[in-house]
TrEMBL record:
Residues covered by region (Disordered): 95-118
Protein name from the UniProt record: STAS domain-containing protein
Top-level taxon in the UniProt lineage: Bacteria
Pfam families: STAS_2 (PF13466)
All copies of domain MlaB-like STAS, residue ranges: 10-90
Amino acid sequence: MDAKTPAVVLVLTGPVRRDEVAGWCAAVREALAGGGGGVVVCDVGGLGPPGLAAVDLLARLELTARRAGGRIRLRDADPALVALLGLAGLRFQAEGQPEEREPPLGVEEAVETGDPAG
């Protein structure tokens, strides 16, 4: 997706019910229709307390997005939800956080005097 194309935003609300998962997956597929490797932003601030139902929903949305050639990015994610996703082995890009393996802006590596170059 190029910088001029805005990401689609889905506002997820809780509590997560199992019968709603298929509808959310359909919304992700529709948002990514046409390919191009788009991003769907999921605003998860309204999901409520993090739990396994939220983890299951987000895992299914990410799988759906990847199958459609896109990705999911989280907005307003509770740190407890991010931790729970990590425990489940799921990593999502969250708005306001640097991408994996990318140092935060303004951070420079310190060099000790007397260290050999290399």
